[in-house]
C-alpha cells in the first residue's frame, strides 16, 4: 500500500494519484461523520468500472479501511483509496464537490479522458 499525504492546498507533486479540493474533502468528511465512520481510518474509495455509453464510469463509496494494494491519498483530512486497476485510468485526476443551482455532487476532472458521453456520466481513455 502506498500512501501520499499533503497539507494545505492538497498538492504533493506532479505524480499525484488524485488531488482533492477542500470542498470535496469537507463534504465527504461530513457525510462520513453522519454515517458514524472513523475518519482517521476510513476513507472514500474512488474507482472506475465498466459501464455507460462511453465504456467506463466512476464509482465512489465509503470504506472502513484500504485494501493492501490500494494507493492511499490523504488530502485536507480525507483519505482516498484507489485500487491499482483504477489508478491507471484516474491518475492525476481532481475530485471536486460542486453545489450549484442545477445540481450538487462530486465531480472528477480527469486529464486522461479522450471522450465523454453526452450526459457526462461515462468516459473513454
TrEMBL record:
It comes from the Archaea. Residues 20-121 form the Core domain. GO terms for molecular function: 2 iron, 2 sulfur cluster binding; 4 iron, 4 sulfur cluster binding; iron ion binding. Pfam families: Fe-S_biosyn (PF01521). GO terms for biological process: iron-sulfur cluster assembly. Signal peptide: none annotated. NCBIfam families: iron-sulfur cluster assembly accessory protein. PANTHER family: IRON-SULFUR CLUSTER ASSEMBLY 2 HOMOLOG, MITOCHONDRIAL (PTHR43011). This is Iron-sulfur cluster assembly protein.
